[in-house]
């Protein structure tokens, strides 16, 4: 193994704080992006459902 211990792995030759914060921030942004996409999809599906109901009700009232 390249590192002598797990602690040395975490420190990464004094660059650990930069490396792990970059990984953490990247993971946070990816998760936030996924959550945002799921919420947007739910909102779009609700909008389509509402519009379909409105169209069906308008068609029934026209008869």
Task: Explain the layout of strands and helices.
Blueprint: H1 6-11, H2 16-62
Observed structural traits:
63 residues; mainly alpha; 84% helix
Strand content: under 5%
Structural class comes to mainly alpha
Biggest sheet descriptor? none
Give the topology string: H per helix, E per strand.
Answer: HH
H/I helix tally: 2
| N-to-C CA distance | 77 Å
Tally of DSSP β-strands: 0
Give the CA-based shape. rod-shaped
Average per-residue pLDDT, rounded, comes to 92
Helix amount:
over 70%
Q: Low-confidence parts, pLDDT < 50 over ≥5 residues?
A: none
Walk me through what this model shows:
With about 60 residues, this protein is mostly helical. The protein has a domain at about 35-63. It is built from two helices and no strands. The mean pLDDT is about 90.
């Amino acid at each position: 193994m390249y590192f002598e211990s797990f602690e040395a792995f975490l420190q990464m030759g004094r660059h650990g704080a930069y490396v792990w914060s970059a990984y953490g921030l990247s993971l946070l942004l990816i998760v936030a992006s996924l959550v945002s996409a799921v919420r947007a999809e739910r909102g779009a599906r609700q909008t389509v459902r509402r519009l379909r109901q409105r169209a069906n009700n308008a068609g029934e009232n026209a008869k």
